[in-house]
Design a protein that fits this description.
The chain is α/β, with parallel strands linked by helices and 708 residues long. Residues 1-5, 309-319 and 591-607 have low confidence and may be disordered.
């Protein structure tokens, strides 16, 4: 037990700020901790658990702390050990459910638990082939994501078939085809006696619902629950949590609605937002002191969310989001965030590479630099630019380290070499020799990107881990053998404890969630990418804004935000900076080389919003009307019908289609705004100079007849 475990309880809470301490001292009943980015939520909840253990209120083995990633669970276990509470279980939802399923399956169901498949892709691909639906690798990935959404939203193939028409399908697939793929996928799993990760939650929930003895046993074991990142919980996870909890209310949830960025996977923030409705007696603690980022970065993050009040809808209900938590910076001042513009993607990537090169020359640790972007497809330009400048980088958010093929092959090769290790004095050289036949080399492959680069990174990480283990043993006057290295790798693989990779991190905004770096480059911040083109409604735009907020709050000290005007060198400069930067950046903040271009584009940044409800307008018709299609019309319907009659007569007299004169949307806008002069009429979208000259006087006379 650590030294901290033997200190008085009040000393355990020293160092916590007022809000963190309030959370840590609230040990009974429902508790909701609203924690902004960088506010020390993990510190607060681990000290709360340790405080409960040391005060005797919690039995450590009766506490279950739930997270969403193995990395977060591992970090929580480490901190709890340091605080003298090593018996507390900190696991992901899936890990906790799988452990219970493996234990209770023989008595609740009988026989052996079906094998768990880590990847859906092969079975999804076969389901598509059986239905004679052509699919490539990217489409299979999208099909798997849709199946995952359906299952975490608790849809069976039968119930999914009833709602599939309302969803946008991958690659324009017919809804009925998607429903059949889902059904065939489930049938193939049954035939092969395998289950997927969603099945782990579904089956555990089913056993708890149907077997009272099992449910009582689990509830006897776990009496206190803590859920981190509660804004990301799905209906299926919430169902399982409710079954674990039973009729009790010993639940502490931690989350931040402003960091809700996984709605597309089935996550629902309403469980966090409506926590007080479910538990009226719940205590709410807000953590707003940001210990991660400088005041300059915190101010920018606050501004991104403060530009509008966030509202969104989810199936079967409407959520009004609370005002975002306004962070209060606790660090010393640092450099102001820098904005710059590239002529094209290659130019933007090269500009970023040059700045990184300069930072490294000034002593910045390369592993504390990250380049973040909206989609994984954007990484290629940055990989090439960093390679060209001999800057090492690592990719994040791809396949888990110990699941990579080259890592598995490397570990198998090292196991196979155990027989010769006794004759090898230099174990680090032996590791290098063994892995060299699988693609390892002392230097990165010249010009290598993508899979080639990842393979080299993976094998290099195994070599570095071996070096670190040997160095640690040597420092303790112990000899390190290949057996020690293989055992360490196997232990790490069992808990998915990946080694640290050395280089600039390249990652999507989503993959960067929960991480932080000294220096962050947010790249590709142009409309169409941020927000992404398929964000079609208010909910989509709001999630994209929150995604940018998450990206900004990954930075500790320095932040760079950039975009490009064209996709390829020499291409048409048709892009504009993200609308989310409107009102945040100024021409003075943009590099002087790009300043004239930026000034020219500043006026385009304000997005069209509804005059009635203030939501973003997403279609051309809505922008023309200046209101949402669902909002009530503000125009005189009699005037609109008179304009339509006039248009019909003019069209008939000139033998032209009516819409060529003015569309219905333009006539609605005219009826709504009732212009009284040619100048005012000309400002209405869809009128234009030639139509104004041809029809302007007649329209104004008609408006005058209606009192316009």
């Amino acid at each position: 037990m650590s030294q901290i475990a033997n200190t008085p309880i009040h000393d355990l809470l020293l160092g916590l700020d007022a809000e963190q301490r309030q959370a840590a001292e609230t040990l009974r009943g429902p508790l909701c901790i609203l924690a902004g980015a960088g506010t020390g939520k993990t510190r607060a909840i681990t000290h709360r658990i340790a405080h409960g253990v040391h005060s005797g209120i919690y039995n450590p083995t009766s506490v279950l702390a739930l997270t969403f990633t193995t990395r977060a669970a591992s970090e929580m276990r480490t901190r709890l050990r340091q605080l003298g509470a090593p018996g507390v279980q900190a696991r992901t939802f899936h890990a906790a459910a799988l452990r219970q399923l493996q234990y209770f399956w023989p008595q609740a169901v009988g026989g052996s638990l079906p094998n768990l498949v880590e990847h859906k892709a092969p079975i999804i691909a076969e389901a598509a082939r059986r239905l004679r639906i052509s699919s490539d690798r990217a489409m299979v990935r999208d099909l798997a994501a849709e199946v995952e959404w359906a299952k975490v939203s608790m849809h069976s193939p039968e119930s999914y078939a009833k709602i599939v028409e309302s969803r946008e399908m991958p690659n324009g697939l017919a809804p009925v085809s998607m429903a059949r793929i889902f059904q065939t996928y489930e049938e193939l799993k049954d035939d092969r006696n395998v289950i997927d990760f969603e099945d782990v939650l579904l089956l555990t929930s089913a056993i708890l619902e149907e077997d009272e003895k099992v449910a009582a046993s689990v509830r006897q074991q776990y009496r206190h629950f803590v859920v981190d990142e509660y804004q990301d919980v799905s209906p299926l996870q919430q169902r399982l949590l409710d079954l674990w909890l039973g009729s009790r209310d010993e639940l502490c949830v931690v989350g931040d609605a402003s960091q809700t960025i996984y709605s597309f996977t089935g996550a629902r923030p309403d469980y966090l937002l409506n926590f007080g409705t479910r538990f009226p007696e719940a205590k709410v603690v807000k953590l707003v002191r940001d210990y991660r980022s400088t005041p300059e970065i915190v101010s920018l993050a606050n501004k991104v969310l403060a530009t509008r009040r966030i509202e969104t809808s989810v199936p079967d209900r409407f959520i009004t989001w609370p005002e975002p938590l306004e962070l209060i910076a606790q660090r010393d001042h640092g450099p102001a965030p820098e904005f710059f513009e590239g002529s094209d993607d290659e130019n933007e990537a090269e500009e970023i590479a040059q700045r990184i090169k300069q930072l490294i020359s000034q002593g910045q640790d390369i592993s504390d630099i990250a380049v973040l972007y909206r989609t994984n497809g954007q990484s290629q330009a940055f990989e090439q630019a960093l390679n060209a400048n001999s800057i090492a980088y690592v990719m994040r958010g791809a396949e888990r380290f110990f699941s990579r093929r080259e890592v598995k092959e490397g570990m198998l090769a090292l196991r196979a070499a155990l027989g010769v290790s006794a004759q090898e004095e230099n174990v680090t050289q032996l590791v290098r020799d063994v892995l060299s036949s699988h693609g390892y080399s002392p230097n990165a492959p010249s010009g290598g990107t993508g899979a080639v680069r990842q393979r080299w990174e993976s094998l290099s990480a195994l070599v570095r881990l071996a070096d670190e283990l040997v160095a640690g043993k040597t420092a303790q006057d112990e000899k390190c053998t290949l057996h020690d290295i293989v055992r360490e790798l196997e232990e790490r693989a069992a808990i998915q404890h990946a080694p640290t990779l050395d280089g600039v991190t390249l990652a999507s905004f989503h993959a960067a969630k929960g991480l932080e770096w000294d220096v962050v480059f947010l790249a590709g911040l142009s409309d169409g990418l941020v927000p992404i083109t398929y964000a079609k409604d208010q909910a989509g735009f709001d999630e994209e804004r929150r995604l940018l907020y998450v990206g900004i709050t990954r930075a500790r000290i320095r932040l760079f935000l950039s975009w490009s005007l064209a996709r390829t060198p020499g291409g048409r400069a048709h892009r504009f900076p993200s609308r989310f930067l409107d009102g945040i950046k100024s021409a003075r903040q943009v590099s002087s080389r790009q300043q004239p271009q930026t000034k020219r584009r500043e006026q385009k940044l304000t997005p069209a919003v509804c005059n009635t409800c203030g939501s973003f307008l997403t279609s051309a018709k809505e922008r023309k009307l200046r209101r949402c299609a669902s909002c009530p019309a503000a125009y005189d319907e009699a005037l609109f019908e008179s304009l339509r009659t006039w248009r019909s007569e003019v069209a008939k007299a000139n033998s032209i289609p009516a819409f060529v004169i003015f569309t219905d949307a333009t006539l609605m806008s005219i009826a709504e705004h009732r212009p009284t002069s040619e100048q005012a009429l000309g400002k209405i979208s869809g009128v234009g100079r030639s139509k104004l000259e041809r029809y302007g006087q007649a329209v104004l006379e008609l408006l005058a007849e209606h009192g316009g």
